[in-house]
Amino acid sequence: MDQLELLWELQKHDEKLKKIKAKLEELAKKGHIENMTIKIQNLELQLERRKKSIDESDKKLNKNSEILRDLNFQLDEIEKELYSGTITDLKQLDYMDKESKNIRKDINDVEIEIISLMEEIENFKIDIGKIEVEYENIKEEFKRYAEEYKKVTDELRQNAKEEIDYIYEISSKLEKGIYEKYKNIKNNKEKVMAEIIGDECSGCHMILPTYLINKVKESHEIVQCENCGRILYFVDNSQKLPLQ
Ligand SMILES: [Zn+2]
């Protein structure tokens, strides 16, 4: 490979490395992992909240069961006295009868409260079941994605390393002055090399003088386009076509 061909190779590997770096950046930017992490945390929070709500409802339920036990005990006591026949005072009997009615009403209220608490707990449990399914699914998806992400990025990093090695190898074969010229142009232009297509510089579409084209085609000299400054290169396609 002569110096001009080395430059052309250098550009090819520079381009490849650039594409690999862009892909890696793109993957990092997508933030899919971040989004999934937020979603997982959110589901964990929802689960925690519902479990807390169940605990609270359970406490209320226990308290109400105690109240119910007390009320039933009070009712038993009053009714025992009411029907024992030992109390003959009408006023007192009337009072006790009212009291027993009040307790029955309270018992009814507490029972309704207990049923509604039990329903509430049941609904929380159903909710938890649904959230847990979603949670397991997203965790599984996260695991798969993280593995895939690692595989892809590892591969890209390996490719980048290979390209860097190629670039180093090619650069070391280039004459110092030529390599510096390449670097200087690269600071200002995305592509250092421009292919001669027909009689044009493919970088800026300027028509090139024949003597310049011949310098590149025939003597493989390092020639810059007079207009855009890119180093001119000629890809000889005729050799690749079997019919010509
Ligand atoms: Zn040009």
From TrEMBL:
Residues 201-232 form the C4-type zinc ribbon domain. Keywords: Coiled coil. The keyword Membrane does not apply. It holds the Pfam family Zn_ribbon_9. Residues 10-188 form the CT398-like coiled coil hairpin domain. The keyword Coiled coil applies. It comes from the Bacteria. InterPro entries: CT398_CC_hairpin, Zf-RING_7. Residues 10-159 form a coiled coil. This is C4-type zinc ribbon domain-containing protein. It comes from Sporanaerobacter acetigenes DSM 13106.
